[in-house]
Give the backbone structure.
Amino acid sequence: MTTETTLTAAPSPGAAHAAPPPDRTPPAAGRRHRRSWDEIPRWQIYLPLGIYLVFTLVPFYWILLFAVRPAGSTSLVPWPMTTAHFEKVWTERSFGVFFQNSLLIGVAVLVTTTVVALAGGYALARFDFRIKKGFMLALLCSQFVPGALLLVPLFQIFAELRMINSIGSVIIAETVFQLPLSMILISGFIRNVPYSLEEAAWVDGCNRFHAFRIVVLPLLRPGLVAVGSFAFVHAWNHFLFALMFLSSQSKQTIPVGLNTLMGADSVDLGALAAGGVIAAVPVVIVFAFIQKWLVTGFSAGAVKG
Amino acid sequence: MTIFSGGRRRAALALALSGVLALTVAACGDDGSGAGGDKGAEGSGKGKITFWDNNGGVRTDIWKEIIADFEKAHPDIDVEYVGVASKEVQSKYDTAIQGGGLPDVGGVGAAMLAGIAAQNALEPLDERIEASSLKGKLNKSMVESVRSAGGQGELFTVPTSASNGVLYYRTDLFKAAGLAEPSTWSKFYEAADKLTQKDKNRFGYTIRGGAGSIAQALDAMYGQSGIKQFWNGDRTTVNDPKNVAALQKYAGLFKKNTPAADVNNDFTKMVAQWDSGEIGMLNHNLGSYQDHVKALGTQKFRGIPNPTLDDGTRVQVSNPVDGLGLFSSSKNKAAAWKFIEFAASHESNSKWNRSAGAIPANTEAAKDPWIQETETTRLAADVLFSGKATIVELPYYLPDWNTISKADNEAEFQKVLLGRSTAEQFLDALAEQLNTAQAEWKQQNK
């Protein structure tokens, strides 16, 4: 039996453990003075960050270098520059097709994961039902099961559904594997939206769905961006399901294509690097656009669960 | 109210779009039929067949050319090419054997042949070869190697090519240091020492410490010990004291004459750093020859067979022979066989091996002029087929061979390189695993 959670009367779960207000009393004599942010010399901030940045960016520089310098060059700077590797992977190695497939899978997983996780997350946040705790536990436990373990059963299920070598099989498998975490995250975001807002919308004549759509959904934007981007990036990068469920060259994805650039005894490093750049660009663009919402979204969902 | 009716329209639209999407993504799938053990059918010899390339990507172009030639010669057969990355092909086959979706024809290297054949996924091919244009035209030692690798006394693939261990060395660095060609192990170790200048980031050798290290270590070990058999009765010779001493010496090169990062070297990293740095020597096989040419040109390096003992004795381990298998579950075996026969024919086999720099299995293709013009391939072919070398046959027929030679022992070999274990401890453990696997295999094949 399902009952509605009355969150208006009850204090939020986090309130009992709310952090105390910051201590504004001056430091006692002999107590070490804690420096404010403005007092820290800039180099103490930028030097560690700079070192970290070098470690992070050098591999990217290396990939770019191999991607744009001619085969056989040992130059450490990308000059003279060539686009030959990009042309090769995009046309000869079918990365143009792989890119479209990855994009289709990524967008479809984003949409389906977000929509289903919204519905499931709402139920988890707003309703009490008998097996709720067990269900939440099952969602968490499902995160510990590696995809490889379920490969053969999934393969057989899709074979029964005549979906082997169909992009739909990858979309379904990716969505199913990402739903638990997405539902948990979204239920956290929804709990942060006061229930009284929905109740006010009901008083104004909305039914539950419309109250949700008009009042709650806009407030969930950071969380949806976080969950959606997470789903997209995961689907974009995931390799195993596409490798196993798709056979036709015309249906393969970027990670599978990248893997084929490394032969048993031979590897075209220029093409591999160019393929790596092509694979990375959409993810970088996605993160560049959603960075603001992503940080807000994850932190909002992480505080209350 | 307007909002609500608009919302209904949007909801209906969303549902319709979802339906279209679902239909789109679910369309064009298949049922993945064709699991290991399925009997399949001979078929009409026409229609569509699927071919899995076990080294997809790097060999895609040449396969597409051969497929185009085939479809021109057999207009009623359509070949669907599927390139599978070499690292993933074993798991792809294993999943398809369990769950269905095997191709009609697939590239199957000798190293994975026993495991696939043991699951009844491959058709024995002796009779088909006897009745075909390939009769008497396949290299006998490759045929025997593949037969042995299948582990059941039958021929499960038509051999197409062989590789061989090659010692690549930088002629420019050797010349500058006044060193002779590293044709013997003594000269090899001398050169490794003389070419190492750690302060200038120059090293005499790059060792394979990561993925694929075991076969290379075994090659160096048997080459130095001169032991000519892998088995002495039912016991392996890998932990023979001569082999232990040889491996200890070889592993001693690590960090002394090699970069410290070599402990994680798979062939990609090893080849990349040799092609882009100043490292004197590299052991690999014929497969990377074209990569070296692209990086260094033809004047800065040579590829010669692995070194001999000082008295000229040459011992080396066998390299897996590549081949094409006909899958038992195929519903169009007649057409699939036509494709195999065509791909292993003189012209196609020559074309493919020339592109890969490998040794053709078709004896007519092996006589083509390009082999004489490519020194590294010619020298390797000479070693393999002239009878001047003793080939220690690795037990590819053991279904556990891949596990033993990769997952179970690559990390153990890294311990030897890092000095956390001795060559003796490593080889004793390896010998134990091999002896057990051999005993089990014998038991199963009584």
Remarks:
- Chain B touches chain A through 61 residues (CB under 8 Å).
